[in-house]
Design goal:
Layout (H helix, E strand, L loop, with lengths): L2 H14 L3 E5 L2 H11 L4 E5 L5 H9 L2 E5 L7 E2 L4 E3 L14 E5 L12 E5 L2 H11 L25 H16 L25
Parallel strand pairs: 2-3, 5-6
Antiparallel strand pairs: 1-7, 4-5, 6-7
Helix pairs in contact: 1-5, 2-3, 2-4
Length: 198
């Protein structure tokens, strides 16, 4: 049944011009997996972005560095991890990065929930795939595998992937909305981030 997910990954990778795409259940988890995979010790966070991104610092026990960034389309959270949750543009993969996408209901390819990590090596794909799926490989009974990676329950379901395949052609033909920092509130004005400074 996970062949559907693999086909969705292939088509998303092809659209963005990336060698590989790892489907996940959401963009925040895609960023988390990329941070874990690269052993990041800090994360850059624009003052205006989605609120789940800065929470990753506490979750992963890494440093959070606030930035005043007037970003459009995407921004870097480390030197090689890109939050591209709102970015929909063909052949736009940035080589050498882990580019994290969102298919949440407000996004251009609206699946209700979902995400992906674009990457450029088979080894990164294989490891991130295992990390997204409880350390296991799809389409094989987990009890018959030698689990070599710590995994998380962050995989995309085949049903979501099928919805993505069903909607992909129309999404490719439709002009996407342009997103920027101005679409988000200033997180530093929220009590949960009191004391944070740029």
């Amino acid at each position: 049944m996970f062949e559907t997910v693999e086909e969705f990954e292939r088509q998303i990778a092809d659209f963005y011009g990336a060698p590989f795409a790892v489907a996940t259940d959401c963009c925040t988890h895609a960023i988390e997996l990329a941070l874990r995979y690269t052993s990041a010790t800090s994360i850059f966070v624009p003052a205006r972005t989605y609120i789940s991104v800065p929470f990753l610092a506490e979750k992963l026990n890494i440093s959070r560095i606030w930035k005043h960034s007037q970003w459009t389309d995407f921004y870097y959270v480390t030197n090689n991890i890109v939050d591209a949750a709102v970015y929909w543009h063909p052949k736009s993969y940035i080589a050498g990065t882990y580019m994290c996408l969102s298919f949440q209901f407000k996004k251009h390819l609206s699946l209700g929930r979902g995400g992906a990590i674009l990457c450029n090596s088979r080894s990164a794909y294989d490891t991130l795939k295992k990390m997204s799926y409880d350390g296991r490989l799809p389409n094989q009974p987990w009890a018959e595998q030698d689990i070599t990676e710590i995994g998380y329950h962050y995989y995309m379901t085949p049903e979501t992937a099928q919805l993505g395949l069903d909607k992909l052609a129309e999404a490719k033909k439709t002009e996407p909305r342009k997103w920027s920092w101005q679409d988000y509130p200033d997180l530093l004005e929220m009590s949960v981030f009191a004391g944070g400074t740029l």
